[in-house]
Amino acid sequence: MREIVKKTAVAALAGVMAAGMLTGCGEEEKVDGSQTVATVNGEEIPMGILSLAVRQSQAQAEAMYASFMGGMDYEIWDAEAEEGKTYGEQAVEETLEQIELMYILREKAPDYEVTVTEEDETAISDAAASFIEANSEETLEDLAVTEDQVKTYLGLQTYQERMHDPIIADVDTNVPDEEAQQSSFTYVSLSTADLSDDEIEQKKEDAQKILDAMKEDPDADFNETAKSVSEDYTALDGTFDTNESEETETDGEEMTSSSTYPDEVTDVLRTLDDGELGPDVIETDTAYYVVRLNKKVDEEATENKKESIITDRENELYTDTTQQWMDEADITVDEDVLKTLKLTDSHKFSIATATPTPSPEESSDGDAAAEDTEAADDAAADSTEAADENTDAAAGEDTETAADADNTSTDSAASEDTDAASGDTVDEDEVLVPVEEDVPATEETEDTGAEDAEASTDDAADTEESGETAE
Known about the structure:
The chain has two domains: about 10-170 and about 315-360 and about 415-440, no CATH class; about 180-295, Chitinase A, domain 3, CATH 3.10.50.40. The protein is about 50% helix and about 10% strand. The chain has helices at about 10-15, 45-70, 85-110, 120-135, 135-145, 145-165, 175-180, 195-215, 220-230, 265-270, 300-330, 335-340, 360-365, 365-395, 445-465, and strands spanning about 20, 35-40, 45, 80, 85, 180-190, 235-240, 280-285, 285-295, 330-335, 345-350. Helix 2 crosses helix 15 (about 445-465) and helix 4 packs across helix 6 (about 145-165). It starts with 8 loop residues before the first helix and ends in a 5-residue tail after the last helix. About 30% of the residues are buried. Residues about 1-25, about 250-255 and about 370-470 have low confidence and may be disordered.
């Protein structure tokens, strides 16, 4: 089972999930939300709850893909994920598995003294009523969900979120210094991937020039020195395990190092003192490296590593515990009912927000606001156009991005402490409405797309500035 990703219940359902068919495609078979799609320890899961969860995830995924693809056509759900199964079919099965776990978490809640209060129930009921009221009859029919099922789904998500911390409460948070200790360094890597012999030789000569210049002036700026050889080169900072970690073996695979950087690089770095340059250009299968050790013991990076290790332990404990519960549970799935829920590229769902009707007082300022909005839109368009040019330029650079996974402390989505039933995230102005074919998207959908596009182009611009980086 894949790791369960936690979602904020009320906020997610307050958005607009509007169904629209693509031109030339007939309507799919309607789903019967009252049918039982699965049972968990004797509790029935109605299809309406699964349908709502699937469409919610579908809309989020399609919004993400749309922002990444920049308006180009794309295929998600109809593509084959594995032999005889599409990504759409796979997503439906995985979503059902998540809901099965939600039922189990609700069942286990008393063992962890986790409850949903009357106040929570009121907030959930209000959110469910607002969801039903905000959506058209056509959309609700397509979702095949009732108000009671929406309330059940919100309650399940609330239990899921509140069960997380009690489950991981006993995790070992003691991380020995020798396990987490991190060293920091600065480096330049010149990629040799897919280059001719002559080009590879030129890269080696450039790396030597950078090293020689740094040896002449050890206090010189590493990045400026690299760029003095070529504007394409950039010095980067990284961290690695100070103490050589044990190699790991998984599922019969050969032994591999857990380090982010090539062994040839870390082996040299571990022989250096603070501020010392690697004596020679380091050659790997895919790049030449010039390195300098900054701190043999980097306290900040070490603390970040400790947090990352604890987070990994929490995620492992949560996953192992819930997987055991899933294995022990009596779960049956009605495959015939499950197959009636289709997730395809011809049946789109999107999330949007309706524009609230202005009050008389707000209307008096309408003209000025419209002028400001138009000016802001023009500025945003110019900014996006410039960013697009930077993206195109960055795409042409011979760059590779180095990721220092060991220095990144990533909290699992499942570890957020979100109280879904608090009701504070409910926005009465957000509604569900059908999206007809060829009708322009709502303002918020367009704005969201623009923001995502700007974020993507900003990342591309950062890549352009990075020049040539580590593998």
